[in-house]
Amino acid sequence: MKQKFISLVNYGIKPETPPEIAEQIRLLNGISILGVPVVAPYALFFGIIGNYILSIVFALGIFIFTAPLIVNKWFGINTGRIFTFLMVSIFFGTVSVLTGKDAGFYLGFLVISVPPILLYPTLRNGLIFVGFFVLCLLCSIYANINYLPPCIIPPPMSMVIYLINLFMVLFVTLAVVFIFKSELN
C-alpha cells in the first residue's frame, strides 16, 4: 500500500521537472489523495442509508480529491493548486450547507487551510486561498444559521458523524504534517 501511495504521489513528475517543483507536486498529490479515504466511506454510507443526494455529493468529492493528480500532470502545478484549493473549499462548503452545522463537515475547512501556506512559495499567495476558505466557511455558517439544511441527519447519527469528522480532521492534519516533514527529509 505504501508503494501505491508513493507512486500516486509521484504521478505527473517528469524527469526534467526541477526538484523544487517536483517536491510541490508530491506534496499536493499526497495531500489531495488523503481526501479520498475521508469522502469515500461517506459516499458509501449515505448510499446505504438511502440519502442519495449526499451519496452523489461525496462521490463527486472522490473525483475532486483525485483530479489534482491529472490536473498537475496535464496543466502544471500552478493550475493544480488553484483547482485543488478552489474545488475542495467549494466541496466542504456545499456539504456543510446540505447537512447543517450538527454534522460538522465545516471542520474540513480547518484541514484545508494549512496546505496553501505549505504549497505556495510566498506566504501572500497562500493567504489568498486561506481568505477564500474563510469566505466559503462564513457563507456556509450563514446558510446554516438562516436556512434549514435540505439533507437533515437525525440527531444521534449527526453526533456520531460530528465525532468522526473531528477525528478525521485530527488524523488528516497529522498526515499532512507527516507528509510535509517526510518530504523535507
Task: Describe what this molecule looks like in 3D.
With 185 residues, this protein is an all-alpha fold. The chain is built from 9 helices and no strands. The radius of gyration is 17 Å and the shape is globular. The two termini are 21 Å apart.
DSSP strand (E) fraction? under 5%
How many DSSP E strands?
0
Find the structural class using helix and strand composition: mainly alpha
Specify the overall morphology.
Answer: globular
Uncertain regions spanning at least 5 consecutive residues: none
Number of helices: 9
Radius of gyration, whole Å = 17 Å
Distance from first to last alpha carbon: 21 Å
H and E string: HHHHHHHHH
The level of helicity is over 70%
Q: What's the rounded overall pLDDT mean? A: 88
Largest sheet: none
Brief overview, please?
The chain is mainly alpha-helical.
Keywords:
single chain, 185 residues, mainly alpha, 9 helices, 79% helix, globular
